[in-house]
Amino acid sequence: MGYTLNFNLIWRHFEKLWGGLLLSLELAVISIAIGIVIGLLLAVWYVSAGRLVRTAIAAYVEFIRNVPLILLVYLVFYGLPTVVDIAYSAQTSFIATLSLYSGAYLVEVFRSGLEAVPRGQLDAGKAIGLTPWQRLLHVRLPTMLRITLPALSNTFLSLFKDTSVASVISVPELTYGAQWINFNTFRIVEVYLVVTAMYLLTGYALLYALRLVERRFRAAH
Amino acid sequence: MLGQIAYALPFLAQGFAVTVWVSLLVVVLSLIAGVMMGVGLVYGPAPLRWAVRIFSDTIRGIPILVLIFFVYYGLPAVGIHLESFWAAVLALTLFKTAQVIEYLRGAVGSIPKGQSEAAMAIGLTFRQRLAYVIFPQAFRRFLPPWINGVTDAVKGSALVSLLGITDLMHAINQVIGRTYEAMPLYILGAVIYFVVNYALSLASRRLERRFSFIRE
Amino acid sequence: MSIPPPANPALLDISDVSKSFGTVEVLRSVSLQVTRGEVVTVIGPSGSGKTTLLRCVNFLESYDSGSIRIDGKEVGFRDTGTRQRRSERDLAKMRAETGMVFQSFNLFPHLTAAGNIMLGLRKVRGKSSTEARAIAEHWLGRVGLAHKADSLPAELSGGQQQRVGIARAVAMEPKILLLDEITSALDPELVGEVLEVVRSLAEDGMTMVMVTHEMAFARDASSRIIFMADGGVSAAGPPAEILGTEIDNERLRSFLARFRASHF
């Protein structure tokens, strides 16, 4: 025992943590934005496509969901450049990985959302003479979005936590900042206490904000 | 290239065995801890309920990686020395326990109040109600998500490679360090993880169908 | 002043029971005595406290004041006269003295029809598995479901499920059977088979308190009808009197008039 808490060194290097937190948020936001595009396109394609396309999309989803994120991160950052001739930074590489990763989870979210839109609404759309595209754009997607909003928030929150894996390829996000302070100051307990608090406060603040948005959205419809 | 990888297979198999062993320990330990704490959360007195709620919400609110580093680097600082293997198992167990708590709460919470009342009405005591009416029903709702969640333990176990434990993930990186065959080895690793986890999620889906209260 | 004990002590003695949910008073000093073999029907508009009263009798709900006694024993509180809740074990024992049949059946979905009946017999009454099975089969026969002993609830119709619910309650040999709107969740064509079972139990002398909207059945089967309104007993008497046209109770009259308008 005999460990006395001393936060001075943590505060001195706090910009590492603060900058890390902002980068974590940035990574999560960019990745979910790209992930939403991937998820939406594939989900819409899935529900209207034939067997072959469905199998291909399902394979992508199942593959990503059943492989550890850290392995995907390594694969894209260290593996891919050995077979294709492109160069990218660790940060770009991580964003690409996390986008593909969230895309796979969001295909499932959006697909079940699309299938949960009541038949009657689509029939009503047909009855007033909307074309299939108009039905998708004006009836199916808005309803689906309302249904899937909570799942979307949850996906974003877990992506925010998943950004910590970026530290393994030295992207200077929050967990990386924690390790830097850990190895350079040895104020181990303090730094992880502070970082835990930062993840928790940010996570629950986001959760609260997203629930507010959801309620707004529900009330508006 | 293939020759080099074939040469490394026994080493990868050892790593895979460690992955399985870590996952198994985590799954069993978290099941025990999670069910006990989950029952505390649903039926316990207020202070216990609060303690479990705070535990679960804290653990689920931080990345597993932070949890692993916190336990691994933090415990020695306060005088508790664990081998890296056991520190990793402890951290992953904490993470998984929080999940089990939520599965249990969900399973018990989904049973209609009328079931408890009917059990009360025929004169069963609290323990009897749990043992003969609530748990048998909750069990069927608990099992499919729990089995599905075992994949989270397997996937999470890949993070223990960062503590220098030679699990499958670490073994792959070590072989790559010697052979420079990054892509084939990462793909091989992905396939192995995929096969294990996909089998688990298929099992969970089958159980879900089997466990509806209608006989086929 | 000493009060001599009544000649025919009530099996169920509800006296001066009040209960509130928050600021809403759902029972206002309700008193009701039921003697052995009586069939008492409680009617009244929704929100009048009928179901709450029934649930208080086997202490699924607690009550704020007054007393509810079965065979002279207070149901939820200790005999010391204080309002100290009974222990979990004692409460379970008291609850086993009353049988309850629920509106939504509440059969245990993981147990067969026979299993539903056997659970209480084995765990509360301490019967062996063979004894319990024999009793379960006897009662399933009584409700016309001998052939469904090994069916799961999900494999039974609503009417069949409710008959199992009744068998589960009476197999425990309760002193009183409480029936809480037991046909309300049933399709109209299934109501008859359930009421038939209740009628045959009444003929056997089973003491019953039931809440129901089946007025015709209430008139034929009950010895007394209680009309509740706003948490209190507003009128009580034999069916012919309560459901007759000469009754001098404005609330009851308008309840019955509205009821007839919507049901006949």
Automatic annotation (TrEMBL), chain A:
<feature type="domain" description="ABC transmembrane type-1">
    <location>
        <begin position="21"/>
        <end position="210"/>
    </location>
</feature>
<feature type="transmembrane region" description="Helical">
    <location>
        <begin position="20"/>
        <end position="47"/>
    </location>
</feature>
<feature type="transmembrane region" description="Helical">
    <location>
        <begin position="59"/>
        <end position="80"/>
    </location>
</feature>
<keyword id="KW-1133">Transmembrane helix</keyword>
<comment type="similarity">
    <text>Belongs to the binding-protein-dependent transport system permease family. HisMQ subfamily.</text>
</comment>
<feature type="transmembrane region" description="Helical">
    <location>
        <begin position="191"/>
        <end position="210"/>
    </location>
</feature>
<keyword id="KW-0029">Amino-acid transport</keyword>
<keyword id="KW-0812">Transmembrane</keyword>
<dbReference type="GO" id="GO:0043190">
    <property type="term" value="C:ATP-binding cassette (ABC) transporter complex"/>
</dbReference>
<protein>
    <submittedName>
        <fullName>Amino acid ABC transporter permease</fullName>
    </submittedName>
</protein>
<keyword id="KW-1003">Cell membrane</keyword>
<keyword id="KW-0813">Transport</keyword>
<dbReference type="Pfam" id="PF00528">
    <property type="entry name" value="BPD_transp_1"/>
</dbReference>
<dbReference type="InterPro" id="IPR035906">
    <property type="entry name" value="MetI-like_sf"/>
</dbReference>
<keyword id="KW-0472">Membrane</keyword>
<dbReference type="InterPro" id="IPR010065">
    <property type="entry name" value="AA_ABC_transptr_permease_3TM"/>
</dbReference>
<dbReference type="GO" id="GO:0022857">
    <property type="term" value="F:transmembrane transporter activity"/>
</dbReference>
<dbReference type="InterPro" id="IPR000515">
    <property type="entry name" value="MetI-like"/>
</dbReference>
<dbReference type="InterPro" id="IPR043429">
    <property type="entry name" value="ArtM/GltK/GlnP/TcyL/YhdX-like"/>
</dbReference>
<dbReference type="GO" id="GO:0006865">
    <property type="term" value="P:amino acid transport"/>
</dbReference>
Automatic annotation (TrEMBL), chain B:
<dbReference type="GO" id="GO:0043190">
    <property type="term" value="C:ATP-binding cassette (ABC) transporter complex"/>
</dbReference>
<feature type="transmembrane region" description="Helical">
    <location>
        <begin position="20"/>
        <end position="43"/>
    </location>
</feature>
<dbReference type="InterPro" id="IPR035906">
    <property type="entry name" value="MetI-like_sf"/>
</dbReference>
<protein>
    <submittedName>
        <fullName>Glutamine ABC transporter permease</fullName>
    </submittedName>
</protein>
<feature type="transmembrane region" description="Helical">
    <location>
        <begin position="183"/>
        <end position="203"/>
    </location>
</feature>
<dbReference type="GO" id="GO:0022857">
    <property type="term" value="F:transmembrane transporter activity"/>
</dbReference>
<keyword id="KW-0813">Transport</keyword>
<keyword id="KW-1133">Transmembrane helix</keyword>
<feature type="domain" description="ABC transmembrane type-1">
    <location>
        <begin position="16"/>
        <end position="204"/>
    </location>
</feature>
<dbReference type="Pfam" id="PF00528">
    <property type="entry name" value="BPD_transp_1"/>
</dbReference>
<dbReference type="InterPro" id="IPR010065">
    <property type="entry name" value="AA_ABC_transptr_permease_3TM"/>
</dbReference>
<feature type="transmembrane region" description="Helical">
    <location>
        <begin position="64"/>
        <end position="82"/>
    </location>
</feature>
<dbReference type="InterPro" id="IPR043429">
    <property type="entry name" value="ArtM/GltK/GlnP/TcyL/YhdX-like"/>
</dbReference>
<keyword id="KW-1003">Cell membrane</keyword>
<keyword id="KW-0472">Membrane</keyword>
<dbReference type="InterPro" id="IPR000515">
    <property type="entry name" value="MetI-like"/>
</dbReference>
<dbReference type="GO" id="GO:0006865">
    <property type="term" value="P:amino acid transport"/>
</dbReference>
<keyword id="KW-0812">Transmembrane</keyword>
<comment type="similarity">
    <text>Belongs to the binding-protein-dependent transport system permease family. HisMQ subfamily.</text>
</comment>
